[in-house]
Amino acid sequence: MSNAIIPLLLDSLASAALIFFAAVGLTLVFSVLRVLNVAHGSLYSIGGYVAASACLFIASRQLNPYLSFVALLFSAVFVAAVFGPLIERSLVRWTYGKSEAVQILITFGLFLILEDLQRLIFGVQSLYEDAPMRLLGTSSIGGVVYLNYQILLVGMAVLVVVGLRLLINHTRLGR
After folding, report:
1. How far is 68 from 59, CA to CA, in rounded Å?
2. Other C-beta atoms within 10 Å of 60: how many?
3. What is the widest separation between alpha-carbon atoms in the chain?
4. DSSP reduced 3-state for 146
5. If you ran DSSP here, which 8-state letter would residue 172 be given?
6. Rounded (10°) CA dihedral 57, 119, 121, 116
7. What pLDDT, in 10s, does the model give residues 126-148?
8. Mean pLDDT computed over 42-71
């Protein structure tokens, strides 16, 4: 029984960390801007496709595989920098002060548009590149082999929680 607890706990923490990262984005947008943005998942998905495309490009050119970590960071920043201001200025700005129903309808429409845009650009096939996860290696915990990526994800989630808590409670920006 105790042998099953450690793997179950680590699997649960890794899954919770993934959900946390999606939820913290939604929560910050709603708490700061007071906008219910249901298109948030589409932006997350587009960021994933851009990241996978960048990593596949690096692999196809046989460049240093550690560049994939840089590609992951820059693809997230790129998607946020391009889509964030564009969406805010063209659609979301007009929903400030309106009811949540209007915000949901507009951002759901945006979700549908972004979903189709994603299909047009990246196609309907999934993209997959595991170079970053392979580079991090594996660890054996409780007799079960885990990707170090999963352990890193849990650690990063803890750092983000602590960092956001400090930012919100102890800085002028957070107030």
Report:
1. 8
2. 9
3. 56
4. strand
5. T
6. -140
7. 888 888 888 899 988 877 888 89
8. 92
Burial class (CB in 10 A: 0-12, 13-18, 19+), 39: buried
Tokens standing for 60?
């196809």
Structure tokens at 94: 């007009």
What pLDDT digit, counting tens, does each position of 58-90 carry? 999 999 999 999 999 999 899 999 998 999 899
Q: Look up residue 144 and give its DSSP letter.
A: E
What three-state secondary structure class fits 64?
coil
The encoded tokens of residue 68 equal: 């994939």
pTM: predicted TM-score of the whole model, two decimal places: 0.81
Give every CB contact of residue 164 below 8 A, 6+ residues apart in sequence. Answer: 24
Cα R_g (the chain), whole angstroms:
19
More confident of the two residues 74 and 44: 74
Instruction: Give the residue extent of every domain in the chain.
Output: 1-32+137-175, 34-136
Tell me the one-letter amino acid at 146.
Y
Contact 93, 79 (CB under 8 A): no
Q: Can you tell me the distance from the alpha carbon of 148 to that of 115, in angstroms, rounded to the nearest whole number?
A: 31
**Pairing relationship of beta strands 144-147 and 138-141 according to DSSP bridges:** antiparallel
